Amino acid sequence: MKIVSRNEELLRDALSCIPQPSSRTSLASCNKMIRFEDISAAAFKIQCGVQKTPCMYSRLSKQYGMDIYLKKEFLQYTGSVKERGVLYLLMSLPQDQQRKGVIVASDSNFSMAVAYHASELRIPVFVIMSTSTAPARVKMCREYGAMVISYGTAAKDSQAHARRLAQENGYLYLEEEDSAVYLSGLGTVGLEMYEQVPKLDAVIFPAGGHCGLLAGSAAALKHLNPHISIIGVESESFPVLQQSLKAGHPTEDQACNNHHFYGDVSGVCFGSNSLQLTGKLVDKVVAVREEDILISMLRLLEYERATVDAEGAIGLAALVAGKLPELKGKRVAVVICSGNLELHLLQRCIAHALTLDNRVCRFSLVIPDCPGDMAKLLEILAREEARVLDIKQERTFVTSELFTIEVVCTVETRDKIHTAQLRNALLERYPTTAWTER
């Protein structure tokens, strides 16, 4: 079945603005204008190598007043949507290059995808990582089948080493950029969502520096239905895409480099192809706070049992923050693109999100150091149905009256209203209660 687009001219106009590719990396030879046919070809070619992930109705819909569908790309084998672009890129390489092998130099989702799919295609693959890389990432890449080499203390050292090895041995040095082949692979997300959810009003994507997913999927969706609203979401701390769109060329925010929590969302805007497509085809780009991203991660864990990182949660964060009121009552798809949250960050993120959501709180008060007074405090907490997480008593350094103790208590509540009720009950019995503000 052939789908006739009413938006073909818009897509052609966007691509006519793309400058000639530079020789920045060895992928430059793959650059050409992206067409809807390229995305369709990519979908056909990679269908046996990546998951057709579900796009499911979310229980969060009632909470935010719209029909929300979550495209769960974190269910890909390496936990990232980058597999789509990487697989199509590797399958498009000449056979002689496939025999020689490829090399990458980072610990990003892109490198993880290259490690896995190159191994599956029996392409020799080498990953150069700095010595500061998390051990779990090194272990995972090796399990995917890559030869992992630790070199240098910074990313630039490992990249220089990878380029040198590529030149000496004939490997193809890969780094994530916006070649047409890579964008076409990422654009298959848009095709799948269009098939899976009829009558979509809007689709929300992560944006930031690496906006290839946004650009490629926008090309597919706008071709199929120009009335679908395409929205990108990036961090307020690193509004790289908005700055680049305003300047008319890719810009770099020095503050965003190597920000571990944000991952690819905080990366440098890496190409004119993506930027031109985004400027022509994306309807809106909004920025959200770190607090909104953390609460979004908490919502996805609670309601969807999905453990995602900042890049995966940032799309939903725009709805959590109320940045898109025009979508009330509409049918909206949100791409959850990445689930590679390192374990040492998981506990910190969820704990902080609970405090931001007014569900974990701390207070201190002074009570007489007499039998039964601590029991009275615990009785109030039990009556108010607050769960005690931690309680500490201080006798030695109390500055108030003699024979008193200071109690510092951390409790869990249901929500903001429950927290306010508990606070009022404590103030009524202990007027000097000090609430620790987050």
UniProtKB/TrEMBL annotation:
Q: What does this protein need as cofactor?
A: pyridoxal 5'-phosphate
Which segments constitute the ACT domain? Answer: 362-438
The alphabetized list of GO BP terms reads: isoleucine biosynthetic process; L-serine catabolic process; L-threonine catabolic process
Q: Which domain of life is it from?
A: Eukaryota
| Gene Ontology MF terms | L-serine ammonia-lyase activity; threonine deaminase activity
Annotated Pfam families? PALP
Keyword terms: Lyase, Pyridoxal phosphate
Keyword Lyase attached: yes
> What are the TM regions of this chain, as residue ranges?
none
Listed PANTHER family = ACT DOMAIN-CONTAINING PROTEIN, THREONINE DEHYDRATASE, MITOCHONDRIAL-RELATED
The protein's name is L-serine deaminase
Organism listed in the record: Pteruthius melanotis
